[in-house]
User: Fold these one by one.
Assistant:
Number 1:
Amino acid sequence: MGKGGASIPDEEWDRFLREAEAGDAGAPKEPSARARMVAGRLPKDGSRPEGWRSHPPARRRRGKGWYAVGLLVAAGLLVVALDPGRVAGWFGGGDGGSEPLAAESNRPSGPPAEVAAQRPTIKEPFRGSPAARWGDGAAGIHLPAARATGWMSKKQVSKALERTQEFLSAASLDRGVLRGEYPRKAVELINPQQPDVQDYLKTAFDRPSRANDPLMLFSRFEKSKVRPAGDVVKTRGRITFREGKRGALEVTADVTYVYPVVRAAAGSDDVARVIVRRETVLSWDDPAKVAIDPGTFSLISYRADTTNGGCNTHTGYFTPEFRAERAATGRGDGREVDPYDRSTSMDARMREAKEGECGTATRS
C-alpha cells in the first residue's frame, strides 16, 4: 500500500515491492516533475512551476468581474465574478426546475446558454448561474470507460481512474480542505519519490507565493473570513487517458468547480461565487521503469483558471470579493472571459491570457 491508498492489484506491483525490499541496484529512477513538465509545457531552464493562476488584488473593476493571469504551464486566469447577491450556504442547491445536464464526455462546441441574471440566495446559491444544472461534487466529473492501456490491464486502468477522481475530490471538494486544512489525503496520493514536487508542496503551504501557490492544485478558503454557502460544490468536467511515456497511463482531468461563499461573520447573506477551472495531468507509472510508490501517481503538469479568487494575492487561500467591494472598484483592465465556457481548451485560454492582467468576467 502506498501512502494514503491501496495499491493497484497486479503482479507488477508485487514484483516492484519485492525488488524494492531487496534493494535492487537496478531500481528505476523517477524523472522529476520538473523534467517531465519541461518535456511537456514547462520552461527549459528547469525552474519550478510558477503560479499560473494568480489572484491579484482588485484593480479598477466594475460591473461583471475581473481576472488575473500568472505564468508557466498555463498563465492562469483569475476573475472576479459578476455581482453575486445575497446568500449564505456552502455549495448548495440548484436553480429549481432545471433539468440536470448529461455528463460532459467530450469538449462542448460552445459556452453554456445565457441564464437570466438573478442574485443567488442562501437557499439557491447557484441561482442565475449555468452551474445550477451541473453535477453535485464528484458526480459532475465524467469518468470514461476503462480499457487496457500501456503497462496496465483494463482492471488496473479502472482502478487508476477511480483513484484519480479520489484525488480530485480530496483536493477540491473535501470540506476540511475547503476550510483551509492541509490536504493530507490528496498529497498522499502523489508520488513521494518526486522530490521537487514534495519540496513545492511543503513550500506552498508554509510560504505561499506566486511561484509556490497551493491553489494551483487545491481549493482553500480562510475560515476566519469566508464560509461555504450550502453543502454542494457544482462541477462539470471530464477525465481522459492515453498511453504516456515508458508505457505509463497518462490521465488528464479538466474540471470546473463552482464554490458559493459568504463572509464568515454571523448573519452574512451576500453570496459570492468562486469559479475554478483546473487541468491536472498525472502519470500512473510502471514501477518496473519508474521509481514510484504503489498506489500513487507522478505529477506531469497542473494549471488553473480562477474567477473571483483574488488577483495577484498569494496567501494560499482564495480571497473572493463581495457585492459591496466590487461596487467600490472598477472594471478589470484585461479581456472579457466567460468562466463557464468549457469549449475553449486550457492551452488556448492560457495563450490568450496576459501575465498580471485583471480582466472582466462576463458572468458569475
Number 2:
Amino acid sequence: MTDPKVLTGLLPEGWDRMTFAPFRDGVEICHLWQGGPDVALLRYAAGASVPRHRHTGLETILVLSGSQSDEAGTYPAGSVVFNPEGSEHSVWSVDGCTVLIQWERPVAFVG
C-alpha cells in the first residue's frame, strides 16, 4: 500500500518556501507528485512564456497568485483552467504568477 503525501501550509503563499528548479526560460517548477498524473507548482517570472503545445491528456491549473494568459484569455488568482486532451495553446504571464498544475500525460510542443 502506498502512503498518502500531505502538504500543509501551502496557502496562502506557503509555496514561497518550496524548492523550485529551472523548467523553461523564466519558468520554475516544484514537483509535488510524479508518476502520472503529475502535480507541480509552476512559477512564472514577469514576461515568461511557454511555447505552443498540445495536451495529450487533461491538464488542470489553479492560479494561486498573479495571472496567467493564453490565447483564450487572462486568468487571475483563484481561476481554475481545464485544458482537455487535444487542446492547444501557448501560455504567458505579463506580471508573473504561480500556478498549481496537474497533468495526466506530458504535452507535445508544436511550435
Number 3:
Amino acid sequence: MTRPPLPHEFLRPVPAFSVSSDDVKDGGTLLPAQTLEGGNLSPQLAWSGFPAGTKSFAVTCFDPDAPTGSGWWHWVLFNLPVTTTELPAGAGSGAFPGLPEGAVHGRNDYGTKEFGGAAPPPGHGPHRYVFTVHALPVEELGPDADTSAAAISGALGFFALGRAVLVAEYENR
C-alpha cells in the first residue's frame, strides 16, 4: 500500500526548525500514555531555531492514515506566546499543566478541546502521528476554540513562517 504524502508536504515551502521530545522519538512508536485508551497524555515537546519574525506558535497532531478520507486531527493548540519554547507532558490534557496563559485549544476530531490520543482501528495497520510546531508572524491566529481543526490548519498553512515536524507511529493489533 502506498501511503499518501504527509500534510506538510502539500503546503507551500517554509523553513524548517527543530522539535524534540522526551516522550516521542521521530520515527519511533508512541507510548501507551499517548493513546486514547492508555492515558490520553500529550507528549512533552521542545523547539528551537525558529525563524526571525516569529510572534507565536501553534502545535498540531494529525493522523493522515485514519480511514476517513481526510485524516484525523488529534490536537490543535494555538496562540502560544513566542516566549514558549517547550510544553511539558500533559499540557494538552486534563488540567493542562504548564499551558501558557492565552493559549487556545481548538476542537479536535473527537469534538473535544484538548489532545486526543492515538486510537487507530484494530487491524488497520500502523498510523503516523505528525506532531508539528508552526512558527507564526502574528500574536493571535484569529479563529476561536470552536473553529474546526481543518479550518485552523488552513490558516496555519497560509501564515506559517516555519515548521518543525516529528512523526511517530502507533498500531492497534
Number 4:
Amino acid sequence: MKRHDWLRAGLKLLAGVQVLLGLWILLLPDIFWKWRWVSSLPPYNEHLLRDLGGTNLALAVVLCAAVTTMERRLVLTALVAYLAASVPHLVFHAQHLEPLSAASGAGLMALLGAGVVLPAALLWLAADASAFRGPTPVDYRPGGANKSS
C-alpha cells in the first residue's frame, strides 16, 4: 500500500470510531456511563455526556471531509484536532487509574494510547506532501489535456 492509501485508511478508521462513539454517547449516555472505565469517575451527567457525543460527531464530520477530499490542509487540521482531544484525554485517565484493577487500567491505557499513536503516525505520513500526489485527474472537457482516446 502507498503512503496515500495508509493515510486514507487511517483517517477512515478514526472517523468510524468517532461516529460510533459519538452516536453511542449522544443517543445512549446512560449505557455509555455504565462502561467500567467511565463509571469509575465523578457522578453521571447526562448533559455533559450528550455534549461529548455531539463533539465526537463533529470531529467525525471533519475526519470524513478529510477522507473525502484528501486535501492536505484539511487532513493535517483533522489530525491535529484529533490529537488536541486525545492527548489530554489520555493524560487525564493516566492520572486517575486508582479505581481500576491493574489489568483494566492497562487495557484503558492501551486503548487511549492507540488513540494518540495512530493519529500521530498519520500526521507523520501527512507531513510528506507526496502522500497527496495521486494520478492526474482526467479532464473530460472538450479539448481537455487528459482526454482519453
